Amino acid sequence: MNIKRLTLIIFVIVTAKLIAQNNIRYGAKAGINLSGFHTGKSAFTDNVSFNIGGLAELELSESFSLQAELLYNKKGGLISIRNTNEPTISIDAKLDYIDIPIQAKFEFIKNLSFHFGPQIGFLIDSKGEIEYPQNNKGEEVEFTNTNTIDFALNGGLSLKFNESLFLQARYSYGLIEIFKNDRYKNSVVSLSLGYFFK
């Protein structure tokens, strides 16, 4: 069973369980993203953007819960184009996603939780701006060779200030190449402030 199929099965099972429960807290979160790309050997976070969205949390015990989110996530980074005997040209890529992460949360210290889980993303916009070696901005380009579906693994920490307000730090490691037949995958560090309404 490949990673895509396994991730989709997990999403279906967890979503069905959340829908079947009544004891769910709902909230919202927003924050900043430090995004870039990784190639399997190295990761870069050279783009500053933001995330915003809603979430639902199902508490299964005093120390364990499941959190599902629906996020608008702006990502991107620098793409280097190297041609023989010519200066390297970079493209500042801007990628917009609707992401659905499902996180398992373990509270190992009072008010401090570790969370991890899969994420599926749907690309809704992709463009870039050429940067020439002289640091001059060039024309805007639209990418036509992008994969519209993205999968990632997330991990991070959540700190509760009270029953409603929390701070969340997360790293998202992309599993799917963003551009077809190319090595770039998403790499995102996010810091978000959230609030539960219930």
Could you explain how this protein is built, in words?
It comes from Aestuariibaculum sediminum. This is PorT family protein. InterPro entries: Beta-barrel_OMP_2 (IPR025665), OMP/PagP_B-barrel (IPR011250). The protein has a single domain (about 5-195), classed as Porin, CATH 2.40.160. It has 1 helix and 9 strands. Helix content is about 10%, strand content about 65%. It has an 8-stranded antiparallel beta barrel with strand order 1-2-3-4-5-7-8-9. It has one helix at about 5-20, and strands at about 25-40, 45-60, 65-80, 90-110, 110-130, 135-140, 150-160, 165-175, 185-195. With about 200 residues, it is mainly beta.
Helix content range? under 10%
Please give the domain count.
1
Output the helix-strand order.
HEEEEEEEEE
Assigned CATH architecture: Beta Barrel
Q: Describe the largest sheet.
A: 8 strands, antiparallel, barrel
Rg is 18 Å
Class inferred from helices and paired strands = mainly beta
Return the CATH topology. Porin
Ends distance: 38 Å
**Strand composition percent:** over 45%
User: What is the residue-mean pLDDT, rounded to a whole number?
Assistant: 85
Shape: elongated
- Name the strands of the widest sheet in spatial order: 1-2-3-4-5-7-8-9
Pfam family, one: OMP_b-brl_2
InterPro entries: Beta-barrel_OMP_2 (IPR025665), OMP/PagP_B-barrel (IPR011250)
Domain Outer membrane protein beta-barrel: 20-179
Protein name: PorT family protein
